[in-house]
Specification:
By secondary structure, this protein is mainly α. It is about 80% helix and about 0% strand. The protein is elongated and about 50 Å long.
Amino acid sequence: MPSGGGQWAIQGPIIFETATALSLDTGKMIMVFAYGDQISNLLQPFWALPLLSITGVSVRKIFPYTLIFFIVGLFWLSMSLFLFFLSQ
């Protein structure tokens, strides 16, 4: 899916069904979905492609930095979600 809205149109009903089946707060599940989607954008930043073509920098030069941000973000998200659902 090229956009968050299109992705939500496909996966949103599944998230609602899962939240209902597991008796989870749907608002929290929506936020989990949004955060998870944003974390993956740290690893593969499509927003950087035009910038890279303008500056002439290769993807191989920025990938180590995006990988670091991805790992830190994934750790932060995991800990946040653990505390988020622990407080339920």
